[in-house]
Amino acid sequence: MAEEKKLSNATLVKNWLLTYSSETCYNYERLQGLGNTNAFVPVIRELYPGDEAKQAEELKNFLVFYNTEPSWMGTIINGITAAMEEKRANGAEITPDEITTLRSALMGPMAGIGDTVSQSIAYPVLAGICIQLALAGNFAGPIIFEIAYKVLMLGLGYNMYMLGYNKGRDAIVDLLSTGVINKLLDAVSIVGLMV
Hints:
Layout: H1 9-19, H2 33-39, H3 41-47, H4 52-60, H5 75-89, H6 96-135, H7 140-167, H8 170-177, H9 180-194
């Protein structure tokens, strides 16, 4: 009996971090497809070690149109995909088409939620606070903005990725059914209004 394949934490972190480069090689045919394929190189290499032909074959499945918000909420898609690829490598009856279909189905909703969190809530709230600091003559305003924005982005992005990986396909259902997203958006909107 073959040993069960399990993605290492280092590979998961590489996959998550490379998600932030998904807009490299941006083109009109695939948008983030090439950059996202690059993000899955460590995952595929670990699942199919030493078999370069199989690795190339598996990576071709990612060379399709892909476009979502890649930094805040969209990372959950790559977490789910990594979990599904791991199960598939261990013999689960999951086809590459099922993985592509799931990714395609989640692109739009995660882009809408992620763009709302990043561009409509986090950015304006932090900018409003830090601009006031800068206008008061405090040179730390822009520095605080940049650090706080990146900490929020990376913190939420990592947690969404790991939620996707740990819960697999059920992650998005759990997230939406518990109302966590709506509570988060409401809470941050209130803080934005206060600022």
